Amino acid sequence: VGMYALKSLSVIFPIAVLYLCAGLLFSPFWAIVVNLAGLFVCLTLPFLLGRLYGRGLVEKLAARYPSVRRFDEIKSDNEYFLAYFVKVIGVIPCDVSSLLFGAMGLRYRRYIVGAMVGMLPFMAAATFLGRTISQPGSPGFWISCAALPLISGISYLLYRRYLRRRKRPDKQ
Predict the structure, then answer these.
(1) What gap in Å lies between CA 139 and CA 143, rounded to an integer?
(2) Residue 83: per-residue pLDDT
(3) How many C-alpha atoms does 77 have within 13 Å on its Cβ side?
(4) 8 Å CB contact between 35 and 22
(5) Around Cβ 56, how many Cβ atoms within 10 Å?
(6) CA dihedral defined by 153, 157, 159, 164, rounded to 10 degrees?
(7) pLDDT at 147 over 60
């Protein structure tokens, strides 16, 4: 869990490595428990830093990541959905989006629930991949390997669909 705290301060280090390591080191149940606790820490620390640094951070991030401007516009629609959606599609790195949500003033409870649910599918697949990584011919290994790009592909398609619906004018 401490490694997750360190990871939350580094945009460069991929979180999937921690998921895989937990799957390799622990039984599936404990690996999921460790990863959920670590994920909670990894999502909370940048969020709190974003709260401390405030609105100026949102403006700097918007300059670097054009999609950030869209999230600020969408924020008022549904905070749970926004946090979930951003995390499940992975448009912005996890730590950057957490900083952003803190700076945007999302309510913490709504943010953490949406973000945890959004990251859960990839975390579970990567954890089970770590569990089966030493048996590359096993069905569990291949299912885990297939699940990772499948989750990413479905997330991308959902994101595109969402953008198309958002661009359409309301028909009332």
Answers:
(1) 6
(2) 87
(3) 11
(4) yes
(5) 9
(6) 160
(7) yes
Q: Is the pLDDT of residue 23 over 70?
A: yes
Mean pLDDT of 114-142: 85
- Three-class secondary structure of residue 59 per DSSP: helix
- CA–CA separation, 136 vs 155, rounded Å? 26
**Cα–Cα dist 147/28, whole Å:** 16
Q: How far is it, in rounded angstroms, from Cα 112 to Cα 132?
A: 29
Tens digits of residue pLDDT in 87-105 = 887 777 888 889 888 988 8
How many residues are given for the chain? Answer: 172
Output 146 or 109, whichever has higher pLDDT: 109
Note whether 43 and 116 are within 8 A (CB).
Answer: yes
* Cβ-proximal residues to 154 (8 Å cutoff; 6+ apart), any chain: none
Q: Measured between alpha carbons, how far is 107 from 2 in angstroms, rounded to an integer?
A: 25
The span from the CA of 30 to the CA of 168, in Å, is 45
The answer to whether 92 and 100 are in contact (CB under 8 A) is yes
Residues 16, 126: contact at Cβ < 8 Å? yes
Q: Can you tell me which residue has the tokens 């499940």?
A: 88
Residue 169: pLDDT band (50, 70, 90) is: low
